[in-house]
Design a protein that fits this description.
Blueprint lengths: L19 H19 L8 E7 L14 H7 L4 E7 L9 E3 L2 E5 L6 E6 L2 H5 L9 E6 L3 H12 L4 E5 L21
Parallel strand pairs: 5-6, 5-7
Antiparallel strand pairs: 1-2, 3-4, 4-6
Length: 183
């Protein structure tokens, strides 16, 4: 994130959650880790970046003629940087039940479970493109959703635990993941 924010902000100035540029770069870091851990080569999709005018221009717009990015960074409600993936697919969940979602991409090979906090919601825009099945569940509900996820997606190839620093003290007990059956 430190490198990414040299080009564009990764968070809103008034919120702790990632904006699109932050989420895009977080997903690149996650894919890099997945490739290293699984010894795979999941190639990230190219980013399609555009500045979107989200509201009427304010009185500073003419003053900064062409510097819309500056306006965005100062006033995130007026403009924002939108980052989409070229060739993204499978972004509509096949199961959606509050804090539990399942996405399916028949063209991909691996299954990923993403157990996270509110930051993982933003990852739903990117991660399902890369996995045969992608299960998102909030960490608070994950213990009850593990059996359901096994039924809906089978054994995952990887479990990605995404948490903001404020939840590090609430990491899962490893026994809740292990069933004693080699998993």
């Amino acid at each position: 994130m430190r490198t990414a924010k040299e080009k564009y902000p990764t968070y809103r100035t008034t919120d702790t959650h990632w904006i699109d540029w932050g989420v895009y770069n977080a997903h690149l870091a996650i894919l890099d880790s997945v490739n290293n851990l699984l010894k795979t080569q999941i190639d990230p999709k190219k980013a399609k970046i555009q500045l979107v005018d989200n509201a009427n221009k304010n009185e500073f717009s003419d003053m900064f003629n062409g510097l819309d990015e500056w306006i965005h960074y100062q006033d995130p409600e007026k403009n924002y940087l939108r980052v989409d993936l070229e060739g993204a697919c499978c972004l509509t969940p096949i199961i959606s039940d509050g804090t539990y979602l399942v996405f399916e991409n028949p063209q991909a090979q691996k299954t990923a479970w993403i157990v996270g906090d509110s930051f993982s919601i933003a990852l739903q825009k990117y991660m399902p493109t890369y996995f045969r099945k992608t299960v998102f569940m909030h960490f608070v509900d994950s213990k009850k959703n593990i059996p359901r996820a096994l039924k809906d997606s089978g054994k995952p190839d990887i479990i990605i635990d995404e948490r903001a620093e404020r939840y590090v003290d609430q990491l899962p007990d490893p026994s809740f993941i292990s069933t004693g059956k080699g998993y």
